[in-house]
């Protein structure tokens, strides 16, 4: 298995784009956002990009991974970017993604849209209780139909999830970890359970 860590930043290309961006108060703001392109070896199967501190990334619009036809596992644990108000592109072959300890209080619901074959999503301590508060349509996990394992531990959730949150995972989800949250009421309905 091939792997890359730490020094992958040397393969990052930056392009500027003018586009709109959501602010914390959900207004639109136009500013100079950057699209990043990261070219990695096609033989790469595991990427450990944890604990990367991004001081010069600025306002991010998208991060596109190129050349990663075999990449299956990405670990971004504790990688520090300003927020999660951007999209990852090129994650079609990734099956395990760890983005724990991200700052997702400001969250683009399309962050993971390209990860269509994702089976395991780990997002511990990522401020999702704030980031998902306005996701009334359940867009964040929409289309991720292969997700079997979701770990949303320690995200300070207090309210129950909307029924639309896991709608794409009704036939695939096997394990949902919610340890260390603050739910007042807890109710998960499954069509499978209702019909048994």
Description:
The protein has 196 residues and is mainly beta. It has helices at 128-131, 191-194, and strands at 3-5, 12-22, 28-39, 46-48, 60-66, 73-75, 87-89, 96-98, 120-122, 149-151, 175-177. It has a single domain (3-194), classed as Leucine-rich repeat, LRR (right-handed beta-alpha superhelix), CATH 3.80.10. It has two helices and eleven strands; from the N terminus they run E-E-E-E-E-E-E-E-E-H-E-E-H. It has a seven-stranded parallel beta sheet, with no helix packed on it. A four-stranded mixed beta sheet has the order 2-3-5-7, with no helix packed on it. The longest helix is centred in the middle third of the chain and has 4 residues, at 128-131. The radius of gyration is 17 Å and the shape is globular. It starts with a strand and ends with a helix.
């Amino acid at each position: 298995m091939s792997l890359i860590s730490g020094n992958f930043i040397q393969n990052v290309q930056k392009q500027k784009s003018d586009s709109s961006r959501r602010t914390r108060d959900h207004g639109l703001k136009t500013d100079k956002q950057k699209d990043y392109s990261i070219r990695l070896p096609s033989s790469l199967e595991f990427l450990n990009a944890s604990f990367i501190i991004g001081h010069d990334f600025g306002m991010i619009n998208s991060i596109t991974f190129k050349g990663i036809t075999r990449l299956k596992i990405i670990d971004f644990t504790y990688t520090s970017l300003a927020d999660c108000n951007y999209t990852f592109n090129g994650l079609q072959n990734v099956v395990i993604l760890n983005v724990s300890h991200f700052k997702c209080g400001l969250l683009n619901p399309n962050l993971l849209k390209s990860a269509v074959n994702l089976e395991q999503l780990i997002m511990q301590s990522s401020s999702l209780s704030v980031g998902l508060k306005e996701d009334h349509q359940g867009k964040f996990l929409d289309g991720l139909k292969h997700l079997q394992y979701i770990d949303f531990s320690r995200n300070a959730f207090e309210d129950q999830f909307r029924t639309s949150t896991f709608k794409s995972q009704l036939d695939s989800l096997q394990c949902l970890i919610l340890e260390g949250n603050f739910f007042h009421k807890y109710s998960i309905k499954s069509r499978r359970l209702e019909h048994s």
